[in-house]
Amino acid sequence: MGKKLPAIDAYIAKSQDFAKPVLRRLRDLVHAACPDVEETLKWGAPHFMHKGMLCAMASFKSHCAFGFWKGKLILGKSPRKPRQRRDSSAELPGLPAYPGDKLLSQYIKEAVRLNEEGVKTPARTKPAARKKLSTPAYFMSSLRKNMKALRTYQNFSPSHKREYIEWVTEARTEATRQKRLKAALEWMSEGKVRNWKYVKKS
Predict the structure, then answer these.
(1) Is 198 helix (H, G, I), strand (E, B) or coil?
(2) 158: exposed, middle or buried (Cβ count in 10 Å: 0-12, 13-18, 19+)
(3) CB crowding 73-105: b at 16 or more within 10 Å, else e
(4) For tag attachment on the chain, is the N or C end more exposed, with fewer CB atoms within 10 Å?
(5) pLDDT in tens, 2-60
(6) Of 116, 149, 176, which residue is a domain's last?
(7) Which range marks the domain in which residue 69 is found?
(8) Is residue 56 classed as helix, strand or coil in its secondary structure?
């Protein structure tokens, strides 16, 4: 049988009054669904283990949160974390984000099954490599006619260069492209990055 860790008793005792019955109930559901569960504190919050991480719960100022380590496998691509807010009833059932005791127990059992079978969380796919930055000939030709803008551009980081190039080249019409190019040259001659309007002044 799984034992209840005194440190988690202390965590619950220090939680907001609205959260205490919620955390106790979630804890009991985990123990009922997985009698051999082990408790631990990780990153300052209660976690439940059984042949690896199962799930965790946490208490905040105005809500509680509960989530699964392999949530995407259990709940789908957008796992919903059951929450209990302070301005709601202390009873979990009926809350929009709470699936109900029966369904939550099924989720916990599924988490147990995944760990017992050694199922791994799918590795994150690496983001596609960005295309190599290429400055259009007309863009460079315009820059060479404005030495201040050219020097600014040459001193830009690759990301700042890309912002200007993408902004100009993604214009849908030639008129818009020329208008943006004119603005880009003016701003660069003043030493400004593409999104200079949003840069916080120190």
Answers:
(1) helix
(2) exposed
(3) bbbeeeeebbbbeeebeeebeebeebbebeebb
(4) C
(5) 688 999 999 999 999 988 999 999 999 999 999 999 999 998 999 999 999 999 999 88
(6) 116
(7) 6-116
(8) strand
